[in-house]
């Protein structure tokens, strides 16, 4: 085990970094966003500590390889997705659990409520897990998920994406996001992607193609770094 | 070092159950733990309809106020709502821990709620209705208008506590900016 120092606080996110819970473009927010203002909570030891689920959630050596979880290989374009989990100071978030889930190559989730008439793939479950190393690095091997239609508005399609869940080192750092692929023509039309109103912030959800990490004759590769909130440099939080 | 900008949040969407929940996830403690209680409730939308595609995560210290996983205690639970919007976790009532100024806080459990229709998690706290004197002295509860405090109080039941979460509308639960 390594030593970790508990920060005295985490920097609160700047306005506009995250989507508004009330964003109207995503219809399902309508009855699900709180209308009362959030109450300021000083960060106490409960928020400055957090779970380390790594070993309990890893079930074997293939948790990170979504192409080898069944008898046969899944259909689709094999890809390596890797990167680092960093905090706002650029320091690696080490030994932290990274969980992903995604649709198959045809744009279908292995979920009883997914009604998209695209084929299921018996060789693809679409879920993976790994724990970051000392440099905050993670790596998954998977297939490129397909785009799929959804009922948000007429002819709505989700860009290809992989869901990422990060626990960080403290309750205050918890983040769930989605990784997109560069140059997707659906970006302009997607309510979830555009719920982040700052174009620069949106780009932080887009992975980059990396020829160096491709595996010749075998897989393409995408880089995706994720930044969680960093420690607050001001020791005493100010009331707002 | 200049700060890096954080990665934006996105919704977990309707299909997170293929990736996040697991069988043991709702259990902070084993069922033979002498202090084990079930905390259950429903998650409701602005029209009072149950939300079947949401998930809660909880984080707390043990009964003595100690944080961190140790034998028989994980501190963390993850539980999805079922088709009726209901979730349940098995845990122990946490001990008291201080706030940054050293003032004791009433026993509480931090909760993240995630789900379809939520572009970011929302955060609330479970307090316990049978801790009247501790609650009366709690610095966080003191920040909340008196007529909304009840939304954070879990009510005793036969096997533990009941804690419903109202995302919007009448009796909207208090959510925090952490």
Can you walk me through this structure?
Chain A is mainly beta. Helices cover 5% and strands 23% of the residues of chain A. Chain A has 3 helices and 12 strands. In chain A, strands 2, 5, 10, 11 and 12 form a 5-stranded mixed beta sheet that branches. Chain A has a 4-stranded antiparallel beta sheet with strand order 4-3-8-9. In chain A, a hairpin with an 8-residue loop joins strand 8 and strand 9. Chain A is globular. Chain B is mostly beta strands and 178 residues long. Helix content of chain B is 5%, strand content 28%. Chain B contains 2 helices and 10 strands. In chain B, strands 1, 2, 3, 4, 5, 6, 7, 8 and 9 form a 9-stranded mixed beta sheet that branches. In chain B, 50% of the residues are buried. The interface between A and B is large, with 78 and 71 residues.
Main features:
heterodimer, A: 240 residues, mainly beta, 5-stranded mixed β-sheet, 4-stranded antiparallel β-sheet, 12 strands, 5% helix, globular, disordered C terminus, B: 178 residues, 9-stranded mixed β-sheet, 2 helices, 10 strands, 28% strand
Write the layout of secondary structure elements.
The complex is a heterodimer of chains A (240) and B (178).
Chain A: E1 39-40, H1 45-48, H2 54-57, E2 78-87, E3 97-101, E4 127-131, E5 137-143, E6 148-150, E7 156-158, E8 161-166, E9 175-180, H3 199-203, E10 208-209, E11 220-223, E12 226-228
Parallel strand pairs in A: 2-11, 2-12
Antiparallel strand pairs in A: 2-5, 3-4, 3-8, 6-7, 8-9, 10-11
Chain B: E1 37-44, E2 54-59, E3 76-80, E4 86-91, E5 109-115, E6 122-128, H1 132-136, H2 146-149, E7 153-156, E8 160-162, E9 165-166, E10 176-177
Parallel strand pairs in B: 1-8, 1-9, 6-7
Antiparallel strand pairs in B: 1-4, 2-3, 2-5, 5-6, 7-8
Number of beta-strand segments of chain B = 10
Largest beta sheet of chain B, briefly? 9 strands, mixed
- The sequence of SSEs of chain B as H and E is EEEEEEHHEEEE
Give the helix proportion of chain B (percent range).
under 10%
Distance between the termini of chain A: 38 Å
Principal-axis shape of chain B:
globular
What structural class is derived from the secondary structure elements of chain B?
A: mainly beta
Order of helices and strands of chain A: EHHEEEEEEEEHEEE
- Helix/strand-derived category of chain A reads mainly beta
């Amino acid at each position: 085990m390594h030593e970790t120092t508990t920060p005295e606080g985490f920097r609160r996110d700047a306005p506009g970094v995250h989507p508004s819970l009330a964003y109207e473009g995503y219809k399902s927010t309508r009855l699900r966003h709180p209308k009362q203002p959030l109450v300021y909570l000083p960060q106490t030891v409960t928020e400055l500590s957090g779970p380390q689920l790594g070993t309990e959630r890893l079930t074997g050596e293939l948790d990170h390889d979504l192409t080898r979880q069944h008898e046969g290989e899944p259909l689709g374009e094999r890809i390596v997705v890797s990167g680092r989990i960093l905090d706002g100071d650029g320091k690696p978030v080490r030994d932290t659990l990274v969980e992903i889930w995604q649709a198959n190559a045809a744009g279908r989730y292995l979920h009883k409520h997914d009604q998209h008439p695209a084929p299921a793939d018996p060789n693809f479950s679409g879920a993976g897990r790994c724990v970051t190393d000392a440099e905050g690095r993670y790596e998954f091997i998977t297939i490129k998920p397909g785009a799929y239609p959804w009922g948000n508005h007429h002819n709505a399609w989700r860009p290809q994406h992989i869901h990422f869940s990060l626990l960080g080192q403290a309750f205050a750092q918890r983040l769930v996001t989605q990784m997109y692929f560069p140059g997707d023509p659906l970006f302009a039309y997607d309510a979830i992607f555009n719920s982040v109103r700052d174009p620069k912030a949106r780009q932080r959800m887009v992975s980059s193609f990396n020829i160096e990490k491709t595996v010749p004759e075998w897989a393409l590769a995408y880089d995706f770094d994720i930044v969680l909130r960093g420690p607050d440099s001001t020791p005493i939080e100010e009331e707002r | 070092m200049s700060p890096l900008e954080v990665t934006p949040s996105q919704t977990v969407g309707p299909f997170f159950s293929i990736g996040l929940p697991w069988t043991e996830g709702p259990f902070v403690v084993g069922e033979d733990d002498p202090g084990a209680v079930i905390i259950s409730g429903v998650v409701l939308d602005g029209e009072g309809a149950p939300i079947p595609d949401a998930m809660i995560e909880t984080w707390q210290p043990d009964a003595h106020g100690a944080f961190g996983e140790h034998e028989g205690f994980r501190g963390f639970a993850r539980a999805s709502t079922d088709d009726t919007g209901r979730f349940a976790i098995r845990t122990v009532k946490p001990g008291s821990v201080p706030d940054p100024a050293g003032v004791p806080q009433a026993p509480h459990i931090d909760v993240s709620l995630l789900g379809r229709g939520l572009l970011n998690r929302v955060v609330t706290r479970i307090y316990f209705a049978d801790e009247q004197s501790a609650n009366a002295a709690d610095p966080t509860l003191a920040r909340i208008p008196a007529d909304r405090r009840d939304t954070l109080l879990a009510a005793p039941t036969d096997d533990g506590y009941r804690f419903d979460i109202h995302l919007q509308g009448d009796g909207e639960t208090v959510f925090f900016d952490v």
